[in-house]
Amino acid sequence: METKNHDNVCEESVFGTIFNDTSKTVFNYIYYKFGNEEKAHDAVQEAFVKLWENCAKVSPAKAKSFVYTVANNLYLNVIKAEKVRLKYADKTLKTTNESPEYLMEEAEFKQKLDRALNRLPENQRTTFLLNRIDGKKYAEIAELEGVSVKAIEKRMHLALKSLREKIDGI
Amino acid sequence: MQDNYLAKWLNNELTEAELAEFKKSEAYATYHRIREVSERLEAPHFDREQALMAVKNKRTLQETKVVQLNPFKKFLKVAAAISVLITASYFYLNTLGEKVTTQYAEHKEVVLPDNSEVILNADSQISYNSKNWESQRNVELDGEAFFKVAKGKRFTVTTDAGTVSVLGTQFNVEHRKDFFEVTCFEGLVSVLFKGQEKRLPAGTSLVAIKGALVDTHSPNTEVPSWVNSESSFKSIPLRYVLDEFERQHNIKVVTENVDLDQLYTGTFSNMDAELALQSISVPSRIKFKFEGNKVLFYAENTP
């Protein structure tokens, strides 16, 4: 990372690397927040064009949090959250042994989880999905959201708690 | 159980004991299920390559926007050029200073910023800069003028033939074609002529004709005679006398068979042309024919 400091974000290759590392996270983050793919695409564009404009001022080490901050500020209180639609990866090989009852029950559970996820507060849903889908560590989610790791753990805890409550119908 | 234990559990950070206790709770089954199923969740498809292209396109789009700002830059260039011109011409005009000119048969009195007086003879011109007069008392002269200089710093009269400088005095400077004369009436005048400095005490003159110094007599008046409407000469070639007559009376002079190099000593009136003509012709032994605005001088012995 220290050697990277000598590079310049204005350099096409450095910019490309940062884009590959960060763009999908930005896209998913905005999508989890608002459930709007178009807005998520716009956020990626906006954030990286801003990064390019300020490439001389932003060091490669700071580029990631710069992009997160731009994306985060973009839709501040501007748009309404829509329904977040997520798919499930097929467990093609495992399914062979499972009974139709089990599959039915599984589909039902997924539906419940979907509903529960959409009823979560936006910051809890975002944290939960960034961790579950993107495999982001709490520390990185904290950086993205601009809050402490402790706060992310709290959100995660509350997210799990209310998901379970909604699924079990408590 | 510690704070946020669900988050810790998801991160595999619970201790053995805590985990065992959590597994015993009735909610555990659902939590476990959530953990398992959410592992298989997928976000919408995101094409990095396409997104990067989109960013690059927008980047170039914005870069051309910057190019569109150029008209303002052009305007700035023009504005800068104009302001440079204005400033330059302001300073240039400042250095030009004041200019006073007299025509034929015209005298003028000029009072300089320090109350020094200049009396300008006919067909003469002075220019000076009143802006920095305090630091530099300098007058450029072409023609003839009488100076009464107020006491103060060095006062300089510059002509093409030579430079006259004084501190405070009265003197006359005449610079005509091939003719240069400085007469000091009071104080001490220093004349820089052809690289040589000559000091003229009160009552002396310096005359140079065609760039060569000529012996001359001292003036016996307090001011140059022309200030009193007379023109006086002492051993001056006739051609310069006739030139002076032309200037004072605004009468065109034509000569025929007249030796213009003969020396003339005398005075003519600047008021009465007829009288002046006689003052010139009688001692020079030439005749003249005076018609309107023109006078013809001719030798006595020509028919």
UniProtKB/TrEMBL annotation, chain A:
It holds the Pfam family Sigma70_r4_2. Transmembrane segments: none annotated. It comes from the Bacteria. GO terms for molecular function: DNA binding; sigma factor activity. The keyword Transcription applies. Residues 111-163 form the RNA polymerase sigma factor 70 region 4 type domain. Keywords: Sigma factor, Transcription, Transcription regulation. Residues 22-82 form the RNA polymerase sigma-70 region domain. The keyword Metal-binding does not apply. One of its GO terms (biological process) is DNA-templated transcription initiation. Gene3D superfamilies: 1.10.1740.10, Winged helix-like DNA-binding domain superfamily/Winged helix DNA-binding domain. Belongs to the sigma-70 factor family. ECF subfamily. This is Sigma-70 family RNA polymerase sigma factor. It comes from Pelagihabitans pacificus.
From TrEMBL, chain B:
Residues 99-189 form the FecR protein domain. Residues 232-296 form the Protein FecR C-terminal domain. One of its GO terms (molecular function) is sigma factor antagonist activity. InterPro entries: FecR, FecR_C, Ferrdict_sens_TM. It comes from the Bacteria. This is DUF4974 domain-containing protein. It comes from Pelagihabitans pacificus.
